[in-house]
Automatic annotation (TrEMBL):
UniProt protein name: AraC-like ligand binding domain-containing protein
Keywords, sorted A to Z: DNA-binding, Transcription, Transcription regulation
PROSITE patterns on file: HTH_ARAC_FAMILY_1, HTH_ARAC_FAMILY_2
Signal peptide start and end residues: none
Domain (HTH araC/xylS-type) ranges: 190-288
Classification via Pfam families: AraC_binding, HTH_18
Cross-referenced SMART domains: HTH_ARAC
UniProt GO molecular function: DNA-binding transcription factor activity; sequence-specific DNA binding
DNA sequence: TACGTAGATTGAAGTACCAG
DNA sequence: CTGGTACTTCAATCTACGTA
C-alpha cells in the first residue's frame, strides 16, 4: 500500500502545524493512535521512522504521512541536525490505503447514470505515504505560510486562509505520486472516450471513431471494454443518459427535444435506453424531483 | 397532446479467434 | 500490439397502440 486515498467531499482539513529541529542523538517521538494524520516534511537531515512493518528514511525534500490508526516508531536517532515541518490534518470522510493506480483513467465500469445530478460528483484524492516532493520551494513556502498564520489563529479569516494553504500542500503531495506509464491500449481507450464525450450529440459511428483515432474499430472496442468495462456504444449511452438527466432536471424541454439534444434521433428509443440504465422512464425521473 | 411500450426488421457493433 | 474475418448480438428505426 503506497498511497492513501481520500473520498471527497469532504476535503481533508488542516488542524495545526509547526517546525521542529532535532539535534544529533535525539529522535522524533514514537506514538500510537494519534487520531489524526501526521505529515512530516524534512528540510534538512533525515528522520528514521517505521510505521507498522515499513521503515522509512525521510530525507531532505521528502515527505511522509503517518496514519491516525497506526503506530509509528523511530528506528534510530538522528545523526545530523534534522529540520522538519510537521502538520496534523484529518478528514471526516472515507479514506483507505491503496496501491497506486493510473489516475488518468476513470474507475473501471464508471456508471454515469448513477452519478447524482443534485449532488456534487464525488471524487478521490490520492496522496503518497512517502514521496519526494517535486517542487520543494513551493512546499516550503506553503509550510512557512502556515507557520506564520498560526500566530493569527484567533481570527476567523485566518482559519479559512489556513485551509486554503493546506489544500495547496495536498496538491503538492498529490502531484508527487509516482505514476506508471500508461499502456497504449489505455491511451487508445481514453482517446476514444474523449471523442465520444465531445461528440455525444452527434450520430457517432464506430467507423468514424476508428478513422479519428487511426485504429481499427474492433481494436478500440477491445481497449474500451478492457479499461472502462464498457463498449464504445455502451459508454456513449451512459454519457448521453447522464446529460439527459441534467436537462430533465434543469429545463422544461420536452422529452423529444432532450432526446434530440443528447444525440438520440428517436424519442422512443431514447426512452428505452434511459429506462434501461435508470430503471424508470425519463418523465418519471423528472416527476420524482418535482 | 405528449409520452411510453412492444414487436418486427435490418444493419452496425461486439466478440472470438487467428495471423503478422 | 494491431488488424482481419466470421459469426453473434444488439442498436436503431418504424409503427401501432396504450396511458397519463
Amino acid at each position: 500500500m503506497n498511497n492513501i486515498q481520500f473520498t471527497a467531499p469532504p476535503l481533508p482539513h488542516y488542524i495545526i502545524s509547526g517546525r521542529d529541529l532535532i539535534i544529533p542523538g535525539h529522535e522524533h517521538p514514537s506514538r500510537r493512535n494519534l487520531g489524526v494524520f501526521d505529515l512530516l516534511y524534512v528540510l534538512e537531515g533525515t528522520l528514521y521512522i517505521a510505521e507498522e512493518q515499513r521503515q522509512y528514511e525521510v530525507r531532505q525534500g521528502q515527505a511522509l504521512i503517518l496514519s491516525p490508526n497506526l503506530a509509528h516508531v523511530t528506528t534510530k536517532p538522528c545523526e545530523v541536525p534534522t529540520h522538519y515541518f510537521w502538520l496534523h490534518f484529518q478528514t471526516t470522510g472515507a479514506w483507505q490505503h491503496v496501491e497506486q493506480h493510473d489516475y488518468r483513467l476513470p474507475p473501471a465500469n464508471i456508471d454515469y447514470a448513477h452519478i447524482s445530478t443534485m449532488d456534487m460528483n464525488p471524487f478521490t484524492i490520492e496522496l503518497p505515504i512517502y514521496a519526494t516532493i517535486k517542487h520543494p520551494s513551493h512546499m516550503f513556502e506553503a509550510m512557512e505560510e502556515l507557520s506564520r498564520l498560526r500566530a493569527l489563529m484567533h481570527q476567523q479569516s485566518t482559519r479559512w486562509q489556513q485551509q486554503l494553504v493546506f489544500q495547496e500542500i495536498v496538491q503538492q503531495l498529490a502531484n508527487s505520486v509516482e505514476r506508471e506509464p500508461r499502456s497504449q491500449a489505455a491511451e487508445c481507450a481514453e482517446l476514444a472516450a474523449d471523442y465520444l464525450r465531445q461528440h455525444y450529440q452527434d450520430n457517432v459511428t464506430a467507423k468514424e471513431l476508428g478513422e479519428y483515432l487511426n485504429f481499427h474499430p474492433v481494436y478500440i472496442a477491445r481497449c474500451m471494454k478492457k479499461h472502462f468495462g464498457s463498449s464504445p456504444m455502451e459508454y456513449l449511452h451512459r454519457y448521453r443518459v447522464h446529460q439527459a438527466k441534467l436537462l430533465l432536471l434543469h429545463t422544461n424541454h420536452s422529452i423529444a427535444r432532450i432526446a434530440e439534444e443528447v444525440g438520440f434521433s428517436q424519442a422512443a428509443y431514447f426512452s428505452t435506453i434511459f429506462t434501461k440504465y435508470e430503471g424508470l422512464p425519463p418523465r418519471a425521473f423528472r416527476q420524482s424531483y418535482r
